[in-house]
Design brief:
alpha/beta; 6 helices; 5 strands; globular; binds adenosine-5'-diphosphate
């Protein structure tokens, strides 16, 4: 079974990594799909986001990382994925995730969305929280992989 885990990953956090690790144990192949054309203006370029995820996912043999633009269901078809994985942190995530899942199902009946609940210790972590804390000079080492901590400090120093 091939599954895709789509998102902005701006940048990847330990919460994302936990979902990747757990999902990769229940599917044959997991494609982490990095959205290029989201509505939010990212801090990191698509290439930087892909590179950081590849470095963080190095230990997982059945995980691949690709950038995509356009409709998620079209990308799922291209990669022969039958399943979309999404993480759920809190009830706040639910409404939007539910709408997206129903929309994707309406666009393509062959693809199912599966939700994984966050692990408790990562339930408060988001990419935007990481960026905010880092931009104010706070420690983000416990929220992101090492590679991201280094990159985010470089990025903030350069802007
Ligand atoms: P998007 O812009 O598509 O929401 P994100 O990179 O913010 O992209 O999130 C990608 C997916 O990862 C979403 O399903 C989101 O709910 C999930 N996610 C984000 N942070 C966490 C976390 N700390 N624990 C579990 N899932 C998470």
């Amino acid at each position: 079974m091939i599954a895709i885990y789509p998102g902005s990953f701006d940048p990847i956090t330990n919460g994302h990594l936990d979902i990747i690790k757990r999902a990769s144990k229940v599917v044959d192949n997991l494609v982490v799909a990095v959205l290029c054309n989201g509505s939010k203006r990212p801090l990191f370029s698509t290439e930087e986001r892909v590179e950081m995820i590849k470095a963080a996912c190095h230990p997982f043999e059945n995980v691949d990382v690709q950038a995509f633009s356009g409709l998620l269901v079209d990308f799922a078809k291209q990669t022969s994925a039958k399943v979309i994985i999404r993480g759920l942190r809190a009830t706040a995530d639910f409404e939007n995730e539910f709408k997206m899942a129903i929309t994707n199902k309406a666009l393509s009946d062959n693809i199912e969305t599966l939700f994984l609940p966050t692990s408790l210790q990562y339930s408060y972590i988001s990419s935007s929280m990481v960026k905010e804390v880092a931009s104010l000079g706070g420690d983000v080492s416990f929220m992101v992989p090492n590679v991201v901590e280094k990159k985010i400090l470089q990025k903030i120093a350069s802007i």
